[in-house]
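Can you make up a protein sequence with its backbone structure tokens?

===
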Amino acid sequence: MKLSWMFLALLLAASPAIGQMYKWVDKDGKVRYGDTPPPGSKSTSMKAQRHDDAQPAAPASRPPQANPKDAPKLPLTAAEKEQDYRKRREEAEKSANKAQQESQAKAAMNEGCERSKEYLRTLQSGQRIARTNAAGERYFMDENQVAQEVAKAQQSIQQACK
């Protein structure tokens, strides 16, 4: 148990040195990086970010402009392109749904109009019109009943055939 505590203490003491990085130019003129520079070389210390201290990278965004109309048009970022694409796709879906609903409503109105006209033609044909009463018995409409149905059918045509 004591050995594990000692090992942990040594590990914590050595952790700041683990993250130290140096940059130098070698004798061939190439830039090199490492944790220990060669002796006699001119090296610069680089701050290494440790994982536990690391800050999340800020999302790529445009700097705020005083007046967006005066600002030059910059290329869109990936997030802005995605947002624009989704917005256009939603608008296209909404307009397609609206057009489909209007088409269905128009078709239903046309069908109702045609049914009303057909019913009026049947009533005006002079044929005997048979109905079934609540008891399930069949009867024929008299002239007064046919006249009332003609008036109802004409009102229905006026409403359905706009």
